[in-house]
Amino acid sequence: VNQSGAVRAWILAYLLVAGAGLGALVGVGCAVKANFCPWRKPPAQTSTDGRTLYAANCAVCHGPDLHGGTNANAPSLVAFAAAGYTEDELAKKISRGKPLGGMPRFERILTPEQIRAVARFIISQRGGRG
Ligand code: HEC
Predict the structure, then answer these.
(1) Ligand 1 touching residue 103 (CB < 6 A)
(2) Which one, out of 7, 9, 12, 83, has a CA that is 20 to 30 A from the CA of 46?
(3) Best mutation site among 62, 113, 126 for ligand 1, i.e. most ligand atoms within 8 A of its Cβ?
């Protein structure tokens, strides 16, 4: 083999190994139902009730009473900054999430209508114990 042939062979071998590694990673991800499995569609939720959707999707982190701190350092949704968000602002924050901060993006998990319903539910829970 001449030199450039050897280089090409190495590049090919590298790509093969890298591809196999990536494939294995995604395969394992899908097997353990991780979020990044590219061909697993999130289960479609049918409820349009904000309270139900909150309980199913948010309470695990933001707490059943919306005061936060249950998981992943999730903040209260009825006190501090969150107490002032409009429905639009809440919907935007819920859709986009903050993946690096531990807040999932819900735009692929819930429909825009469902996200609005959750936002309205959050607003309805303000006041009282704050
Ligand atoms: C896996 C845990 C987790 C789940 C599930 C979760 N959140 Fe969060 N959420 C967080 C964390 C952590 C933050 C703070 C992110 C940051 O600021 O970096 C956050 C931030 C937020 C904020 C912004 C709060 C602020 O003061 O700016 C809103 C609004 C919010 N979440 C609503 C929701 C709603 C509604 C749901 C359900 C549809 C939900 N979250 C599900 C962890 C979670």
Answers:
(1) yes
(2) 83
(3) 62
